């Protein structure tokens, strides 16, 4: 518990007992919200990176916790009487902040403490949370709040809270670590994400008519793996508000993640009302975008207002005669087929890092020099022999673009007859080299990238989403390219022209 003591010492600089004097003094100049946030972050930085990742111990920054609680209060949470549960409460971002709001409307500290309930799997974080809430309520080192150390996914939940608020952990889990089969309501076996299971338990723990406020990865909004979760939300709740939180690399310390805020009212007889969409960021707070209906069909992605605001092209990759498929070679599963030198029946391997926009893509090994090769016992459709471009399948927060593509150098076919790519890539193939080059240039534009980002909430590029990505009509792009030498301007003009063409056809 040395970590807990060090973190809690940061709150008591005046006792002169801290080992981090200057850090604690700097913290003492911050607002309570900020100070509490940094005490939690400090504790998690003392954990190993692995534990931090496993528990998703990334805390909600104060501006976001406040925006979420503003929404809950706006939609009727009663600060004078209401009870609150946070089932992933480490760091107390929500519980400490709401404690302050409860006392601000006149509730007595003891009464406030009795209405706050938390769970965290990490005993240190649970103790720190109690300390932070006690500090906020002026209860000395003692807090009577109900903070349990346990695995929320294995606990029994009754519908007893007026507000359930959480920034739950995320990451894949297997049914073995979950209690019962509640997960089946929100996830497909083989693709169970902790955050989806937390959404289900939050709804279970809320009273009928109560609010559930969540900060969760954005993938549930459009991702094909989250159809069950979308269906469950529509069935069990009224979706009051969906917020885009951004930018992705500025939300949590130490991790880049696209996140959404979701505000629900638990009700099985969900009233069909439009859902409010907004943007939330550290400087502007909550900015409304508009209200839109959610599709009834769980297979359909939820509307994305930023996408609706952009001119619609109305074409897809298929209209350009280009198809997309995931990279074939998984080197850490089939390392025995990887060669450092050329052999008969071996084809050069294109790694994701060989994809550099604006340059022809050529196979090169980890040192950036000689190519690696993959052996084949027989001819395989995985060997790409036709005109192709390669797109990176995962991006990191340092990359300004989600879509990063490059055309494969014709010299590769001339020398080796074909190539293979690794699984962190997507291959775009067509019969015509000119079509492939045109698509590649288009995908590298900000206009296409913005449309992809609006569809996808995750850093990984999905083949399925790429196939449905809205592109300008090929004839409009061809015409715009003749007028605008700059691909960015050509793409913008082509989207505009396609939208006009589409509108014209409708009018006619
Ligand atoms: C993303 S952090 C959010 C923490 C904090 N409540 C906030 O909003 O900033 C997730 C928290 O869930 C906790 N956690 C992870 N797995 C858990 C589980 N199975 N049951 C309960 N808590 C869990 C972690 O220790 C961590 O404190």
Polypeptide structure, described:
- It is a single chain.
- By secondary structure, the protein is an alpha/beta fold.
- The chain has two domains: 2-308, Rossmann fold; 317-507, Adenine-n6-DNA-methyltransferase Taqi, Chain A, domain 2 (Adenine-n6-DNA-methyltransferase TaqI, Chain A, domain 2), CATH 3.90.220.10.
- 35% of the residues lie in helices and 19% in strands.
- The strands form four sheets. It has a nine-stranded mixed beta sheet with strand order 3-2-1-4-7-9-8-10-11. A four-stranded antiparallel beta sheet has the order 12-19-16-17. It has a four-stranded mixed beta sheet with strand order 13-15-14-18, with no helix packed on it.
- Helix 1 (2-9) runs antiparallel to helix 3 (32-45) and helix 6 runs parallel beside helix 8.
- The longest helix has 21 residues, at 487-507.
- The N and C termini lie far apart (73 Å).
- Bound molecules: S-adenosylmethionine.
